[in-house]
Structure to design on (376 residues):
């Protein structure tokens, strides 16, 4: 009954996103970390009006794109469209605190009522740290942008806490390893940034750590710092009609694997829907969950426990990666409200036409839920 109430309330609430943007990009700029802000919604890319747009919103976009620090909030009008067709404006206003991981977690207003092309939002990010010469994006020699060029980092005072800051700053996963890079082919060239560094591990950027004097550096490239991080945490729903429903899979060490349903419940469902920008969980029945079929290959997570305060499923408690006592018959599947956006919006519009239509809407919802095999 709770699910029916949720959908009925969704019809009556003020207009806005029930299925959140599934992607964001910066286009028209000199590189992927600067340009006009565009979001993907229902398979369509469109722009964002600059109502309320500021550095908090730019910070979130830069973080979501792993583009480093927010540099400035700019007008999107100065950047050329990505195609000859001028994209539609999809979002009227955005309100972020600046701490969100994705734009979908901010307060968004869908109904566009007054926004010309000259009012489109833009963003510029500055990637001030990178990992070079590694086998993948989240591994390599640490380099910092300083005084107009890339500098290697001396490993004096370097430890796993400093590596943790770098991994977080680059949008990578947990810090795994830090060491001196002795391979001649991987040694850096040019200037070396700072002679000593001390991090607590809680800093937002490497530049926020306590630093030694750059001018008194006496290190050599034999002492270049090297860091290995886990790849950035990703998840997806597969086997459904869209990205907001299906069997849950998470990416670890470059391999997609499933999640066991031991202890899985409503809070965990809500975390997945939130992270994917897919609205609310619809608490599907066991029959509906099994309709997506079992997975194959690795089972990465088991005994997942979320408090509801986490920003990512990765932050929830769980066993070590790959440790489980499950089979693929126990794979988690999730259905989020984003899947029903089109139907709910249509029924909401119909309900506004009078009491007779409202009665028809109620019956339509009951039939819809029965067809989907969801729990009333």
């Amino acid at each position: 009954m709770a699910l029916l109430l949720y959908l009925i309330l969704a019809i009556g609430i003020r207009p806005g996103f029930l299925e959140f943007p599934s992607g964001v990009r910066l286009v028209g700029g000199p590189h992927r970390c600067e340009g006009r802000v565009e979001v993907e919604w229902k398979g369509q890319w469109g722009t964002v009006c600059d109502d309320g747009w500021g550095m908090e919103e730019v910070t979130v976009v830069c973080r979501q794109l792993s583009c480093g620090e927010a540099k400035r909030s700019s007008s999107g009008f100065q950047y050329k469209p990505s195609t000859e067709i001028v994209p539609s404006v999809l979002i009227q206003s955005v309100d972020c605190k600046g701490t969100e991981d994705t734009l979908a977690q901010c307060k968004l207003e869908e109904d566009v009522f007054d926004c010309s092309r000259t009012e489109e939002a833009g963003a510029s990010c500055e990637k001030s740290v990178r990992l070079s010469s590694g086998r993948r994006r989240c591994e390599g020699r640490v380099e910092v942008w300083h005084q107009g060029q890339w500098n290697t980092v001396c490993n004096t005072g370097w430890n796993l806490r400093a590596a943790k800051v770098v991994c977080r700053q680059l949008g990578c996963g947990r810090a795994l390893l830090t060491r001196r890079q002795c391979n001649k082919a991987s040694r850096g060239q040019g200037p070396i940034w700072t002679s000593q560094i001390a991090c607590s591990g809680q800093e937002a950027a490497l530049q926020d750590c306590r630093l030694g004097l750059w001018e008194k550096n006496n290190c050599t490239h034999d002492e270049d710092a090297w860091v290995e991080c886990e790849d950035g945490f990703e998840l997806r729903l597969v086997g459904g009609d869209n990205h907001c429903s299906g069997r849950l899979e998470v990416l670890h060490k470059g391999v997609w694997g499933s999640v066991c349903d031991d202890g899985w419940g409503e809070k965990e469902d809500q975390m997945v829907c939130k992270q994917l920008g897919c609205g609310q969980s619809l608490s599907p029945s066991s029959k509906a969950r099994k309709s997506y079929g079992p997975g194959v290959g690795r089972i990465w997570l088991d005994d997942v426990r979320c408090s509801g305060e986490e920003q990512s499923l990765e932050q929830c408690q769980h066993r070590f990666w790959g440790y489980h006592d499950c089979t693929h018959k126990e794979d988690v599947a999730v259905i989020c409200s984003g899947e029903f956006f089109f139907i709910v919006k249509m029924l909401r519009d119909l309900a506004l036409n009078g009491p007779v239509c409202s009665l028809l809407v109620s019956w339509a919802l009951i039939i819809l839920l029965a067809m989907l095999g969801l729990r009333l």
